[in-house]
Design brief:
Blueprint (H helix, E strand, L loop, with lengths): L2 H11 L18 H17 L3 E2 L5 E3 H7 L5 H4 L4 E3 L5 E4 L4 H10 L9 E10 L11 E10 L4 H18 L4 E7 L6 H13 L5 H9 L10 H6 L12 H17 L4 E2 L11 E9 L7 E7 L3 H4 L7 E7 H11 L11 E5 L2 H16 L4 E3 L6 H11 L3 E5 L1 H6 L1 E6 L5 E5 L3 H12 L1
Parallel strand pairs: 1-5, 7-8, 12-13, 12-14
Antiparallel strand pairs: 2-4, 3-4, 5-6, 6-11, 7-9, 9-10, 10-11, 14-15, 15-16
Helix pairs in contact: 2-6, 2-12, 6-10, 13-16
The structure holds histidyl-adenosine monophosphate (HAM).
The site of histidyl-adenosine monophosphate has 27 residues, from strand 6, strand 10, strand 11 and helix 12.
EC number: 6.1.1.21
GO molecular function: ATP binding; histidine-tRNA ligase activity
Subunit structure: Homodimer.
């Protein structure tokens, strides 16, 4: 390394308290309007299907993820933010939501209050990944989990809820890939079969090692040589137990009934170890290599693995950051970046006193209002009004007060009309109604 690269690397490592940690997207106005709209639209689809909201810890005991997500996964072995707290407990910033939800359901005996337990969540998750467009160290998900009923109709519901969220946003350039990862009955035999197939291949040592830990991972190796070698590999969907095959067929039937299109992907491999039976991913082709906008599936053994009753589960996690990017790629923007609808422009102290009250009156009627503070002149205040995204400005000077009026300015047409100061709240409401 040259001295210059040395110095650059050094600088990159030096802490800079004025820079956000690497790989963390921040959402500021006006763009944050898109972020909250995407998150809330996805969550609303879950709410409409009866998923109650849970707010869970952002960090948990490290053992929860080691046991729940699986020690052989990249998420657990390489990507966790794990540290000892001041009481010397090993804790980890949550890399995903399912393990925490299941832990909470067990801890609070939620399953005793009727099944299935249907929960939704939204918030940040943390994975120490190599940052790039669409791959972050703090990522945002909206997720659902339906616990305690092993019914293919529930798998289909979970998938349909995710699909409905994407549809409501106006997205169309994505597809649902689906497969079955079988159950305890068929998986061990299939694993042995695949391992036997892999043993006959000329694989490099790192790939052999991967195969030893989890042979299924080799199925989605992207390298052309490995892909070619895996062409005739046995696939789990062809070796499902009759119960798993039946379950899978029913899920697909329900999806057909619901009009949710899907593409079978028998080589799908998920980054988390708990999946059984139904497993799916929503893939958006406009996003390059980070194309997974959401994923999930069934995890029938997880509850027991974590020390709870033997109950099944199914759920999804949708990446809010990537879904927002997908909206950008498709040019859909079903939200407004306007902070407010109305902006008050007071010219003088008395005008400010009046407009502060008018703003409060409008807000109490549900209108979003801001005003110019700090005694700014007309030009500066109008600039703020424009920046706020407001449709109307209320311009008030001493002469207007004397005349008992206020100027209602349409910031799109530029037209300004005087309206009575006393009744201006109703006038503004009517004007907002007129422009829709
Ligand atoms: P996951 O596939 O690991 O599943 O993550 C779900 C979604 O989160 C991904 O499809 C992707 O959109 C987003 N995502 C994951 N990692 C990143 C990242 N580094 N940067 C940006 N976005 C990311 C789970 O987490 C499971 N808990 C889902 C689930 C719920 N399965 C059953 N229930």
């Amino acid at each position: 390394m040259s001295a210059a690269t040395d110095e650059r690397a050094d600088r990159a490592r030096r802490p800079d308290p004025l820079a956000a940690p690497k790989g963390i997207p921040e959402y500021l106005p006006p763009e944050s309007a898109g972020f909250t709209h995407v998150r809330d639209t996805l969550a609303a689809a879950a709410e409409r299907a009866g998923y109650g909201y849970v707010e869970l810890p952002v960090f948990e005991e490290t053992a929860l993820y080691a046991r729940g997500v699986g020690e052989s996964t990249d998420v657990v072995s390489k990507e966790m933010y794990t540290f000892a707290d001041r009481g010397e407990r090993s804790v980890t910033l949550r890399p995903e939501g399912t393990a925490g939800v299941v832990r909470s359901v067990i801890e609070h005996n939620v399953d005793k209050q009727g099944l299935p337990v249907k929960l939704r969540y939204a918030g940040p998750f943390f994975r120490y990944e190599r940052p790039q467009a669409g791959r972050y160290r703090q990522l945002q998900q909206v997720g659902v989990e339906a616990i305690g009923v092993d019914d293919p109709a529930l798998d289909a519901e979970v998938i349909a809820v995710a699909d409905e969220g994407f549809q409501r946003l106006g997205l169309s350039g994505y597809r649902l890939e689906i497969t079955s990862l079988g159950d305890d009955e068929c998986r061990p035999a299939y694993r042995a079969l695949l391992q036997e197939y892999l043993a006959g291949l000329d694989l490099d040592e790192p790939t052999r090692e991967r195969a030893r830990i989890n042979p299924l991972r080799v199925l989605d190796d992207k390298r052309p040589a490995v892909r070619a070698a895996m062409e005739n590999a046995p696939l789990l969907v062809d070796h499902l137990s009759s119960a798993s095959a039946e379950h899978h067929a029913r899920v697909l039937e329900y999806l057909d009934d619901l009009g949710v299109a899907y593409t079978p992907n028998p080589r799908m491999v998920r980054g988390l170890d708990y999946y059984t039976k139904t497993t799916f991913e929503f893939v958006h082709d406009g996003l390059g290599s980070q194309s997974g906008i959401g994923g999930g599936g069934r995890y029938d053994g997880l509850m027991e693995t974590l020390g709870g009753p033997s109950l099944s589960g199914v759920g999804f996690g949708i990446g809010v950051d990537r879904t927002l990017m997908a909206c950008g790629v498709e040019g859909v923007r079903p939200w407004s970046e306007a902070r407010v609808e109305v902006f008050g422009v007071p010219l003088g102290d008395e005008a400010k006193r009046r407009l502060v009250s008018v703003a409060a009156g409008l807000r109490s009627r549900g209108v979003r209002v801001d005003l110019s503070y700090g005694g700014r002149g007309l030009k500066g205040a109008m600039k703020s009004a424009d920046r706020s995204g407001a449709r109307f400005a209320l311009v008030l000077g001493d002469r207007d007060i004397e005349a008992g009026t206020v100027g209602l300015k349409d910031l799109v047409s530029g037209e300004q009309t005087p309206v009575a100061l006393d009744t201006c709240v109703d006038e503004v409401l009517a004007a907002l109604d007129r422009v829709g």
